[in-house]
Structures are given as structure tokens and as C-alpha cells.
Amino acid sequence: MRRWLAGRGLALVATIGVNLLLIAGMARLNSYAKTRRAAVEKPPPVAIPLVKRKITEQRARPRPRPSTGPRRRPALPTLNIPSSVQLPQWEEVQPAGEAEQRVEVLRPRLSARRVLDADAVDEPPRVLVSAPPRYPAQAEAQGIEGEVVARILVDAEGSVRQVTILSSRPEEVFDRAAVEALQKWRFTPAKLQGRAVRVWARKRVVFKLN
Fold first, then answer.
1. Does residue 26 fall inside a structural domain?
2. Does 66 fall in a domain?
3. Contact present, 36 and 28 (Cβ < 8 Å)
């Protein structure tokens, strides 16, 4: 009986010792695993050396104030030239384009359809044939006298192409007779630059009883 109990006690002690060794080994493995994991997850801190820079303040230099007084021009050096040395003399030369100035007179271009004024031509038209006007019977019976001022268009051949009444006295009494008479008049053609041109001219027709 004692031997059995002693064997049982030894077996129990051995079992407890093995369990303690297992527990100690597992604890050691667990701590080693934690240390390994921490070493993998968190890298070791890197020490960065701090460099201190010296900041120097630059003081603004005062700008020089402009002087208000008159500026002095530097004195030109004097040249001592002997009297025997002759200096070259410069002569003013005019450019070829400015030596002679040409004046060009621009004249209007002549056109067959253009009508000029009698004052704008070299030779105004002159009357060759002036047909006497027909005196209106009613004005003659009543002893009425008057005049008509008309504007006529003389072509390049000297014929009257158009008559426009400008004024009449008395009004509308002698207008028709004056137009009929002026349409029969003939003129020398007006000339500009040696060419016959059409012009506007003014004529007055007087109606007077004898």
C-alpha cells in the first residue's frame, strides 16, 4: 500500500512538473511572439539631426536723396591745337529729294455724265443764237412787264437740255414763254482742259413792251 501511494505521489509530482514546464514554455513563446510582432509593426525611430540656421536681419540702407540744386555739367577738356593745323570745314548738303520741290495741281477727272458749274470751267458757254420769247397775249393786253431767271443745262455740243425756273416776276406769268424761248438758244460748248463739257448756266429773260 505504501509503495502504491509512493508511486502515485511520484507520478503526480512528475505530471505537475511537466505542466509547469509547458506553461512556462508557452508564456515564453507568447512574449517572444509579441516582441517580434511589435518589432515588425513599429519601425525603430530614426533620429534626425536638427540644424539651426542663423537668420540675419538685413537692414534697409537709406537711399540717397536727389539734390534739388542745378546739376553741374562736367567740364570739357580743352584741346591745345597748334595754329599750323587746319581743321576740316563741313558744308551742308541738301538731299536730292528736297533740293527741288515739285508742285502738282490735281484737277478733277472729266466724265461724260458729270455736269460742272459755269464758274468751274476754263471757258464758260457763250450765246450764239438767242430766240426772242413770245409775249403772252393776256399780259400784253393788260400791259404787264416782267422777267424770268432760269437755270439751264448746256451739253457738250452747245444745246440746251434742261430748263429750271429759279425766280419770276410776276409769278407764273412769263414762265412758259421763257422756257420755250430758252430751249431754242444755242451756245458755244464750255471747255475744261481743252475738252467740251456739260455745264449749268444762269440766264435772265426780260419781257418788256415797246
1. yes
2. no
3. no
C-alpha cell at 57: 536681419
Residue 76 lies in a domain: no
Distance from CA of residue 16 to its chain's centroid?
A: 110
Domain that holds residue 177: 115-207
- With respect to residue 175, please indicate whether it lies within any of the assigned structural domains: yes
Query: Number of structural domains, the chain?
Result: 2
List all residues 6 or more positions away from 89 whose beta carbon is below 8 Å from its beta carbon: none
Report the length, in residues, of the chain: 210
Side-chain half-sphere CA neighbours of 26 within 13 A: 6
164: domain CATH number? 3.30.2420.10
Rounded-to-5 percentages of helix, strand, coil across the chain: 30, 20, 50
Q: Retrieve residue 142's grid coordinates.
A: 393788260
> How does pLDDT run along the chain (210 residues), one tens digit per residue?
666 666 677 777 778 877 777 787 777 777 766 766 655 555 566 666 555 555 555 555 667 666 666 667 766 666 565 555 555 555 555 555 544 455 454 455 555 578 998 889 999 999 999 989 999 999 999 999 999 999 999 999 999 999 999 999 999 999 999 999 999 999 999 999 999 999 999 999 999 998
Q: Is residue 200 a contact partner of residue 117, using CB atoms and an 8 Å limit?
A: yes
As given in the structure block, the three cell numbers for residue 48 are 534626425
